[in-house]
Amino acid sequence: MYELLKQEGRAKRGVFHTVHGDIQTPVFMNVGTVAAIKGAVSTEDLEQIKCQVELSNTYHLHVRTGDKLIREVGGLHKFMSWNRPILTDSGGFQVFSLAGLRKIKEEGVYFHSHIDGAKIFMGPEESMQIQSNLGSTIAMAFDECPPALAERKYVEDSVARTTRWLERCKNEMQRLNGLEDTVNRHQMLFGINQGAIYTDIRIDHAKRISELDLDGYAVGGLAVGETHEEMYHVLDETVPYLPVNKPIYLMGVGTPANILEGVERGIDFFDCVYPSRNGRHGHVYTNQGKINLFNQKYEKDMRPIEEGCGCPTCRRYSRAYIRHLLKAKEMLGMRLCVLHNLYFYNTMMEEIRDALDAGNFASYKEEKLYSMGQINREKEMEK
To answer: Which of 1, 6, 27, 186 could disulfide-pair with 19, CB 3.0 to 4.6 Å?
Structure first.
C-alpha cells in the first residue's frame, strides 16, 4: 500500500508498505540483473550503502539458473540472502533489446535465448509464473516496449496489445497469489504505460490502465532513443493521468539530472545501470560532477573520490589507489567505484526525501543541478 505523505508541486514524498518492509520514496532501485550487482557487490554491501530495493531480471534468471530452481530453494530473497524488497521486471524489455531474436504474437513472444539459442516462449501468464516462482515483492506486467521513434500505427497496435496482456497478467497474478504453495502470496503487480513519444496515445493508455486499480504504475519505453526534452514532455503530459495515490516508476532512466527532473514530475521509483556500469569503467559521481579516474591527473591524488562522502570506498581509499587498481585490471578497483556510485545515488535520494519533507525540493534541485553542471562547464573550458 502506498501512503502519500507530502507533495511539493507534482513532486511526491511517500512510503510504500510491502511484505518485505517499507520503501521510502522517491527511491532509486539498485540493479542486480542476475540477483547480483555487477562489480562484485555483496548483499552485505547493499545494506551498507543504503539500498532499499534490489531489482532483478525475469528473463535473465529464467534462462540462466532457472526460476524453478530458485523457487525450490525458497525464492529469490532466500537465494541471495536479502530480506528487503525486490522488484523483478517482466522480461518485456528483452522484447525490445533482443529484437533480432524474437517474434511477437498475440499470445506472447517467441525468443531464441541469447546464451545458447534455445527456443523460449514468454507471454503474460508465463512472465507472472516466473516472477511468482522468484517470489519478488513487486512483479512488473509483461509488455512490449516499442522503439521511441516507431511509426504511429505500430505504436497504437503495440499499446493495445500491451493493455490486453496487462489484463491477463492481473488475472494470472490473482490466481497465483491464491495458491497455497506460492512463494510470496502478497506479491504486487505494477502495470506499464507505453506509447513512445505520442502523448495522446500515452494519455489514453494511462487512463485505461488506471481503471485496473493495480498496486503501482510504471512509465516505460523512455530512454530508448528520444531526447531528454522529449522524455520530460512525455512525463509532463502523462503522469497527471496516472493515480496520484499509487507509486509511479520511471523505468530504466537515471542520470542524477534525470532523477531530479523525474521527481519534480511526480515519479516515485527509478532504476538505471549507469552507476554500476560507469563505476566498472572508472567513472565516478561526485557533487561537482562525474570524474574519470583513469585520467593521469589522479595518479598521485591521495584524496578520496569525494571529501566527506561516507561510503565504504571514500572512508578508506584514495583516488590514486583506485586508479592503480583500475589500470592493473584488478576487480577491486571496479568494486570500489561501483560501491561509491550506488552510495552516491542512494544518498542523493535520501537528500531528495529530506528536501521534500522540509518543503524546499525546488531550491535543492536547482542547487544540485548547478553544482554538478558547474564542473562540467569548467571541464569543457579545459579541453
So the answer is: 186
